Amino acid sequence: MNDAHDAALRGYLDELLETSSPPAPAEAGDSADWLLCALGRLQLLLPNAALGKPIACTDAAPTPADWHLACLRIDDADWHVAELVRCVAPDFATSPIETLIPVTGSRWLLAVPGHPPPISVPADTIQWRPHRSSRAWLAGMSRDGKYMALDVHTLVAQAAETLGAGVEEPSP
Fold first, then answer.
1. Which residues, in sequence order, are CB contacts of 122 under 8 Å at separation 6+?
2. DSSP letters of 78-143?
3. What are the pLDDT digits (tens) for 84-139?
4. CB-based burial, 61-74: b 16+ in 10 Å, e otherwise
5. What is the CA angle 166-93-148, rounded to 5?
6. What's the rounded Cα separation, in Å, for the pair 164 and 70?
7. Can you tell me the distance from the alpha carbon of 16 to that of 38, in angstroms, rounded to the nearest whole number?
8. Which of 7, 67, 125, 153 has its CA 20 to 30 A from that of 59?
9. Domain extents for the chain?
């Protein structure tokens, strides 16, 4: 990306955020534990509280030709796959998918490039979006503009709408 593109993206994201920040969404909790997924210069925070244990793609055979909205069977369970890059930044060039991350309370996996490392970013350092009619999966941004916090349940719900698959509700 270039500086003009970065400035336009920052301006767009600034417009989405309001000056007063509501409390953190439930899936972020009080925890500072996230997985950091880097897509070019975008630094995406995925809340650990909403995710299961990452699975290496080499453990998911057979591998689909196209991960986005694919269906996989892993350990006698059927999963739908949402490729993170194509959900968040569809115009970005896709990177090789190396990790699948289960989204809790659903039969969805997020397919991500590389192996996202854990990172600690306190929830109170995130400016949360109170109204999310546009880009509803963007829960907020760090106050320094470095990180975008994602709502992974909304992200897979939108992928399910695209697929027409539906999303299972979490078990009580």
1. 32
2. EEEEEEHHHHH-TTSPPPPEEEEEEETTTTEEEEEES-PPEEE--GGGEEE-S--SSSTTEEEEET
3. 988 888 888 778 889 999 999 999 999 999 999 999 999 889 999 887 778 899 99
4. eeeeeebbbbebee
5. 65
6. 13
7. 21
8. 153
9. 3-163
